Amino acid sequence: MRVNEYVRCEKFPCTDVNHKAYIVPNLDLHPKDITIVMISEAAPADSGDYYYSGGNALFQETTLQAFKDAVSLASQDALSQASKGAISRLETIQDVLGLGVYFTTAVKCGKTGYGIQAGTINECSLLLEKELALFPAVKVYMLMGDVAIKALNNIARRSGEKRPIPAGSTYKIRSGEYWFQGKRVFPSYLQAGPSFYIEKSKRRVIAEDIRAALSIVNAL
After folding, report:
1. Which of 33, 100, 105, 186 is the most exposed place for a label (fewest CB within 10 A)?
2. Where are the domains of the chain?
3. Pairing outcome for strands 17-18 and 101-111
């Protein structure tokens, strides 16, 4: 299955994003192999920085570092030596896909400014909803930043369910346990892009959330 064959934006109605930077993953996947979906903010301005672009793609680089940061906390929990070694050897996003983790963005086009309008997040959540429905074996959604949180809350609202993530800063709410349609949901911080390296105070939080998510699906 290739995701971009099932998920397409036809009309591009949003006015505050760069439609030339539109990306939906073009991957040949077995849907049942995916147990975690990590959703970040928006597509990068340069398609060469996207998760699956290979080389020194920025999204790949910062995300791999986030998974390796999880290993740095290993001495504080019950990770097996084999699991620590598996993560420490990750070199590409394809390696992480092998753990059952799929990466996508809540907004499929690139940003043109600092923020993204609520209407754009809602519009693109229609695409995200179709995308998430492709993966029947998912047990965990990781929401990397406010845009991803808002997008999933929009999906829940349309389905007649209460919002899975309550209002409040991520720092204050992240200690709670949240669920959506029987799947565990982690509200976390953005791991894709240069801010990941700048905001070092959040890197530990991201690492803790990755570690917890992988433990749920027995990938650790």
Report:
1. 33
2. 3-216
3. antiparallel
- The rounded distance, in Å, linking the Cα atoms of 9 and 165 is 26
Spatial distance between the Cα atoms of 145 and 147, rounded to a whole number of angstroms: 6
Identify the CATH homologous superfamily for domain 3-216: Uracil-DNA glycosylase-like domain (3.40.470.10)
Angle, alpha carbons 197-198-200 (nearest 5°): 75
**pTM for the whole thing?**
0.93
- Continuous H helices in 7-133: 58-72, 81-88, 93-97, 118-132
| Sheet of strand 17-18, all strands in order from the earlier edge strand to the far edge | 17-18, 101-111, 36-43, 140-144, 183-188, 178-180
The single-letter code of the amino acid at 189 is: Y
Q: Are strands 17-18 and 140-144 parallel, antiparallel or unpaired?
A: unpaired
What confidence tens digit (pLDDT) does each residue in 45-78 have?
A: 999 999 999 989 999 999 999 998 887 775 555 5
Enter the DSSP assignment of 28.
Answer: B
Whether residue 190 contacts residue 183, with contact meaning beta carbons closer than 8 Å, is answered with: no
